[in-house]
Every structure is written in C-alpha cells, then in structure tokens.
Amino acid sequence: MEALGYFLTPWLDIKLLFLVAAGTFAGVYVGAIPGLSVTMAVSILIGFTFTWDVYPALCLMVGIFMGGVYGGSRTAILLNIPGAPSAIATAMDGYPLAQKGLAGEAIGISTVMSFVGGLIGIAVLALAAPTVSDFALTFQPRDFMLLAVLGILLVGSLSGESLVKGIFAGAMGLLIGTVGMDPLTAEERFTFGFTQLWGGISFIAVMIGMFGVSEALAQLHHVDKTAVKQTISRIVPSFASVRKYLPLSLQTSSIGVIIGALPGTGGDIAALMAYDHAKRVTKNPEVPFGQGAKEGLVAPETANNAAVGGAFIPMLTLGIPGDAVTAIMIGALYIHGLNPGPMLMIDQPQMFWFITGALALANIFMLIFGLTGIRLFTKIVEMPRTVLIPLILLLSIVGAYAVNNAITDVYWMLAFGVLGYFMKSYGYQLGPVILGVILSRLLDENWRRAIISDQGSLVSLFKGMLTSPLSLVLLAMVVMIFVSQTPIWKRWRNKAGLPASGGDHNAPGSGA
Amino acid sequence: MHDKRMRSAGEIAFNGGMFVLSLVLLVAAYAISGFESLSSPGALPMAVALAMVVSSGLILLDNVRNSRRDGTRFIRDILPPAVIVMMLFVAGYAVLLVPLGFLPTSLLFLALSIIYLRRGGIAYALTVSLVALLLVYVVFRLVFTVLMPAGIVPEAEILAAIGRMFGGAE
Fold first, then answer.
1. A188, part of any domain
2. Distance (Å, whole) CA A286 – CA A242
3. How far from B145 is each of A44, A52, A365, B142, B148, CA to CA, in Å?
4. CA-based Rg of chain A, rounded to a whole angstrom?
5. Which chain A residue has its CA at the smallest distance from B149's CA?
6. Does the structure's ipTM exceed the value 0.90?
7. Are residues B54 and B102 both part of a single domain?
8. A188 three-state secondary structure
9. If DSSP codes are grouped into helix, strand and coil, which group holds residue B7?
10. pTM above 0.90, yes or no
11. Pick from B24, B45, B77: which residue ends a domain?
12. pLDDT tens string A375-387
C-alpha cells in the first residue's frame, strides 16, 4: 500500500503533474522534429534541472523520454524520416499509409497502440523489478563487471557498422570516465599535470557534445531540405480497429519489454524485431507489408513504447543502461545523488515507485497529446533548420555551462562535439561512448573488488566465473558476441539463411 | 557488417589520429601505476587503452588494405564550410560568454548564424533571434533558474526594476 502512495505522488501533486505533462508534450515534439532527438533533449535538460529537487527533475525527464519515443513515429509516418531510431520500422508502413492520404488514421492507431505498449511495459516494470532487484543482490562483483562489458558490447555490435568500431567507442567512453582522481586511492589518472582535471571530465559536457553539438553540426548537411505538407483527416481511431489489432499488440509488447530489458538493447531493435514478428504471424494482411499494412505500424509502435518500461528494469535494478537514452537517465540519477542498482529498491523504494508512477502518467499524457494538437504539430515540424540548428547549439552551450558554472565545460563540450561529428562521419557510433562513460565507475569498482576478493589471481577469478551459473551465462554471451563477428560464423549463418540482425541506423535525426 | 565499405575522404587520417591518440593514452595509463597489481588504479585504464589501441589499429589496417575510395571530397562532404563556420561561431561564443555576458553574446550568436545559414535577411534574422532569445531567457533563466554570466548587461538591476514595476504598488 505504501508503494501505491509513492506511485500516485506525481498524480496528486499539481506541480509534478504539470511537469510530467509539460515533459511529455515537449518530448512528443522533440521526438518528432527531425534533428532533435530524445538523447539530445534529455542530456541538455540534465544541465538545466541540475539545481532542482530530484522529484520535479525526474518528472520532466521521464515525460520527455516517454513522449520522445512516441514522437519519432509522427515524422516517420508524415515525412518518412524517423524522428528517433526507434521509429525506423514505423516508417516502413506508416509512410505508405500517409501517401494514400491516411496519415490521420495512421497517427491515431499508432498513438493508441503506443499507449497500450507503454502500459504493458510499465506493468511489467512494476511487477518484475522488485524480483530482479532481489535476484541482483546475489550478484558478485564479477557479474556486474561482465554485465557492464556485455552492455557496451551489445550496443556496439548491434547499432554500429562494425563491432571493432563499437569496441573502440566503448573503450574510449570507459577511459573518459576514469579521468581524474581515482575514487579509491586518490591517485591521478590521465590528468597530465592539470589540476583542473582532478575532478574528471563532466560527463554532461561529453553527452551534450556528442548528442547535441555533433548532431546539430551533422544536420548542417541537410540545411536546405524542407518538410512536405500533409493533409490530415480523422485521428481518433474507431474502437473496432483498436480491438482488431489488440492480440497482435499484446504479442509485440511482450517482445518490446523483453528486448528493452536486456542490457544493451533498446527500442530500436525491439521495434525491428516486432515488425519482423508481425510479418510472420499475419497470414493475410489487408494490404501487403511495406505498402501500408496497419499491422506493420502496430507492431513497432507497441514494441518501442513497451521497451521503455523494459529498459527501466536493468537501469533501476542493476544500474546498467540499455541504450544511450537510459545511460543519460542514469547520469541524471547520479547527478541527483541517487545510485541506481540493487540497493535502490531497498534504500529508496519510494524513488522506484515514483518513477513508475511518473512513467504511467506520462503514458496517459502521451495518449492525450498524441490525439490532439495536430495542427500545431505540422507548424512546428516545418520550423526551418536555419533557425533550429543555432538554437540547439545555444541550448547546448547553456546546458553545459549551467552544471558547474564553468566555461571549461563548454570547451569540453565543443571538443567532444567536434570529435563526435568526425566519429559519426566515419561510421562510429556514439552510443557506446556514453555507455562507457556512465559504466566506467561501476566497471572499475567491480573489477577491483572481484580481483581483490580472488586474492589478485586471474586464474581463480576465471574459475569463479566458470563455476557460477550466472557468471557463466554472462561470460558465454560476451564470448558469443565476439564469435558472431568472425568470418566462420558469418559463413555458417549465411548457409543457414538467417537474416542479418540490426537495420539501417543511419537515419537522419537518430540520436544514438 | 559491411566488410566492403569504401573509405571516405580523410578517413585514414582520422583513424590514424585515433590510433596515435590511443597509443599516447596507453603510455599515460601505464604511467599511473604500471604493472603493480591487477587491482591498481591503473589496471582498468590500461586495459581500456589497450582495447583502444588494438581496435583502432584494426580499423586503420582495414582502411589501408582497402584502397578503394568512394567519391567523397573532404571539404565538400565531410567538413563543408558551413560546419567549420558554425564550429568557429560556437568557439567564439564560448570565448565571449564570460566577458560580454549571456544576453549580448547569445543575440550576436543567433543573429550571425541565422544570417549566415540563410545567406542574408538581416531584419528576419534579428527578429527571430530576439524572439528566440526572449523565450530561452524566460524558460531557462526564470523557470529553470539557470545562472548565466551577466557580463556588460546589468541583468540583476533590470530584473529588480521589473519586479518593482509589478510589485511597486504595495
């Protein structure tokens, strides 16, 4: 019953209610405007909400997260430009529907289905997280270490063009995270004699640089593209059509939650897998897939919103982020003095239930804002990039400066923005960098704990890994990622006729 | 996954730079505590720096072996003038922010970049910048209470004066 009270806190406090609503509203538009991404918005917002209390700050960020995942589908349908990576699959059938003049109907059904998916994801989060958290208490330091490595490798291998580049990016992030005084021995690491580096590099500066500045700079390539106008008919879908797709949406929501809950995999992969699933189980679609099948719209939209709840499970119970956005959310929790991990549920259960409540509330607001205000929406999406890009850059600078009131952070942000820009241009993914920065401390601490508890012997550490079932599974997964990149495996897979994993992640506006 | 990917302009130089950077970082990581013990503060830094050296080395090797170039040109496709100019604008903003203050620097930055990106239209650029800056200021300075350097604008006095105007009747 106590949990219910915490769950309802954001619902009953008018200020928090308003902040969730404002966040969701902003998220829908941020997600929808190509060139703005949820990762960008949340990382910049950390800077701004730095001085706030933790509750209101969380309300705003949860709202933006939820709204942003949904918002990406709008532009995917209307313009064939996924506003977020998780909306890539939505464009495949959403845009053909819009071309047929059914944009309103497509938006309506995707909104309601996103709501259904989001609800299922949150329900699973509320039910599963306490159990996962209990289970996580039995984890050894080496398990956390393996989980962190696994998370980075998964993000690196699934989202990039090559695992090697993913590893490089992840290792770079881990290294950035170690700069400064060692938290255990106060020895200097990578400070090169500069006292300014003792405190480390502000990870917010890194985030804003990588996701704000570099993205804005990359958008300069398409500064002259203009949006296509669409006429929009009726939006609110009929009850019959909702009921028709409900069975499919339940299946794809489960896919979404499970994929979202795996460390390292987020909404984009969930959406693609759900789309694939819908294609297989739908025997006689009214319209073929790829030409405007509503099933092809329902599946990814339920899955990517269900993945939000799923992604919060490892994030809150293990402290391991599922993708770049959850990595940034963890960063936000750190900033506010919270320590996501198995102890969170024990020390601060109110925080867990509060976040779950805010998510549920954001889901409802998403439904409301999704079904209204379409006219305003088309106006905002048509905002010229010549104005949008300078504004993003301005907000990035303000956000980076605001955290420590230090101009040095702005220079770091700019440096990482330029680095990120080049990395993007040459096919590196930026998601693993952020994951690395966030997981650096966790990996460092747990590695050292693990090796100390085994008296500094690598042999007994490995022995421990091979004898514990959990460590063994995790280790096997890490090894599997490497094996799957070898030529032998690829040849075998081609022979078996399995489809290649992943998809086109180079869509414009994809933040991760 | 794309083994047959062609190399873009400047890619070897960038990957080479990353490789050299990784080597430097590996040396710096070794300098932290050497091979003292597996749980020393330098252990993880050395491991990740080694991972960077190996991965960037492999990337570079792949580049050098794969001599086929795509049709990109560095200054047209990778680093077009617009990107350089905007990078310089942001750097300029960072330099001017503290001495000049948030409001004038931001106005200058927004107006200049909009003029540059739109190639003209000074009146439009100034109007849009002013409106945008006003919005940013209200939302972030007043709602989010973010403190920005005041610089040459007596911001606190102006805010106080506005406060007196509205609350002055009492």
1. yes
2. 15
3. 15, 9, 26, 5, 9
4. 22
5. A405
6. no
7. no
8. strand
9. strand
10. no
11. B77
12. 677 666 667 778 8
